[in-house]
Design goal:
alpha+beta, 4-stranded mixed sheet, 3-stranded antiparallel sheet, about 40% helix, globular
Amino acid sequence: MILRMIDNFSSIDISSLESLERAIQHVDTNFGRVFPLWRGHSDIDWTLQAEVFRRPYNEVTLIRSFMAQAESRKQNCPDSKDHVGWLILARHYGLPTRLLDWTMSPLVALFFASQNDEKDGCLWALEPGRMNQQMMGIQQRRLYAMDEAVVADLADLAFEPNPTRLEERTALVAGRTIASGTRELDARVLVQQGMFTIHADQTDLATVGYGDSPHPSWRVAFRVPKHHKPQIRELLRHLAITKSSLFPDLAALAEELKDRSFLA
């Protein structure tokens, strides 16, 4: 595990429903009984960066190309001026964007954390109100809606074609991440109980200091040991948390059915 993450980790490892319950209780106590956002990483060393910043993508070309070709593949796409809507749709279909997906369900997050038996996984919990309070420098602790100006301003950066203008606009919000709700534009967002953080730049959220915040603890991580991942996946399967339930399309269903015992 890389050093940047050590201070984020609880001593609780996730290996069963019992340990998951202890983790939830730990979060409940430390976050003040506020429902957290959850995120699962199959590799414990992954950063809390939006994917578009992890490699030198041309963000504008990427999202504009997705928009140009999406309407022939999906009905009821967002309006061309609905930048937030397009980022949500693109992110849930795997396109690198400045959105980082979270979920309201620790079971959904644990599904993603329990993939890849070669690496320890990580289950992240985030108190969005406290983070927003620090990021925005305000007294109020709240979750932003996707249609609020502070969210839309960050979303608009993904569509800024002028590199100089993009640099100038980004400098005004450098390091900022905002936690927001979602819009259920697609069945994947619905079944995954999706929520988002939207990121101004490549800042790794796991490394952001708490500064002088009166409520400093707004993130915590739990290790998911690799040798426990197979049993966790089997447990989640019995709880109907499977790939086909989280990706409700025919391809995911067919893939899952192939792995079941339907041999003659």
